[in-house]
Amino acid sequence: MPISQHSHSGQFCRHGSGTLEGVVQAAVARGFTTYALTEHVPRFEPAHMYPEESDMTVSDLAAQFDGFIAEAKRLRTAYAGQIDLVVGCETEYLSASDAAQMLATINAAGTALGRPLLVVGSVHHVARIPIDFSRDLYDSAVAHFGGDRAALYAAYFDAQYELLRLVRPHVVGHVDLVAIFAPSAADHVATLRTPEVWSRVQRNVKAAVECGALFEINSRAWKKGVAGYPCLELARAMREAGARFTLSDDAHAPEDVGMHYAAHVTEYVRELGLEKVYCWDGELAVRELRVGGPEWTAFFARVE
Question: What is the pTM of this model?
Answer without folding.
Answer: 0.96
